[in-house]
Specification:
With about 150 residues, the protein is α+β, with helices and mostly antiparallel strands. About 25% of the residues lie in helices and about 30% in strands. It binds coenzyme A. The site of coenzyme A has 19 residues, from strand 4, helix 3 and helix 4.
């Protein structure tokens, strides 16, 4: 399978019941950019959003991804958030979540925004076929630029 991870990690559909765990993990891994609880709940409730989680053998949440798409197939889908718990990073889980989300979004073009200084994420995205499209100056709360990256899928 293209997005397999090291067992016993599983990638599953996430639901509103996971929102607390996702919020906790977001706060742990994002210094400034964690979504407020309500915004996350909204993402889980909006039709058409793709919400996936990675769980370990004990059923604990160790990663998540959300993707968003327009009803218009010609418009690009967007990866909204992606994160992996520090103890589980560098095991292929981020890549697995990203590719699984892209598959379920079923759009030819997928975009995302990433901090200019987030080399780990940029490397992951480049490895998965994303290319820098344009820069959003001072996009983040602390004034850092955001890089918009895009992938065109076959
Ligand atoms: C970015 C993030 C999701 C990557 O998840 P991950 O599960 O560790 O990534 P993977 O193990 O799937 O790594 C895939 C590739 O990404 C790159 N990569 C991942 N982490 C890296 C790091 N710390 N340094 C350099 N490259 C890295 C590598 O190319 C890696 O391939 P390799 O291990 O074969 O060299 C994770 O580091 C994270 O949650 N970071 C904090 C939240 C965040 O920045 N999210 C993205 C916001 S846009």
């Amino acid at each position: 399978m293209r997005y397999s991870t090291i067992p016993p990690i599983e990638i599953l559909a996430a639901s509103l019941r996971d929102v607390h765990a996702v919020h906790r993990l977001e706060k742990e891994i994002f210094l400034y950019d964690a979504y407020p609880h309500l915004d996350l709940a909204f993402l889980f409730l909006t039709p058409g959003e793709v919400n996936l989680k990675a769980v370990n053998g004990a059923g604990q949440l160790v990663g998540f991804v959300t993707g968003s798409r327009s009803w218009f197939r010609s418009l690009p889908a967007w990866i909204v958030t992606l994160g992996v718990a520090p103890a589980y990073q560098r095991q292929g889980i981020g890549r697995g979540l990203l590719l699984a989300c892209e598959d379920r979004l079923s759009r030819r073009r997928v975009r995302l925004t990433v901090r200019k200084s987030n080399f780990a994420a940029i490397r992951l995205y480049e490895q998965c076929g994303y290319q820098h499209l344009y820069t959003k100056p001072h996009y983040y709360r602390n004034g850092e630029d955001g890089l918009v990256m895009e992938k065109t899928r076959d």
